[in-house]
Amino acid sequence: xxxxxxxxxxxxxxxxxxxxxxxxxxxxxxxxxxxxxxxxxxxxxxxxxxxxxxxxxxxxxxxxxxxxxxxx
Length: 72
Description:
Layout: H1 2-13, H2 33-47, H3 53-58, H4 62-69
């Protein structure tokens, strides 16, 4: 699943996969508020995991994003 999350993240933000790590911060390098919404929608569809607006707002870095969409 991590590869799928990284693939979608890379596609949406334009970030090369090799540059993505758990500390990659929101609001940097193409991960703006608009792309955040797109990420949540695409990852929700791909993983069939629904995320509340509150939970979405709590995601601050790639590690958080990965944890949510791995089902943890």
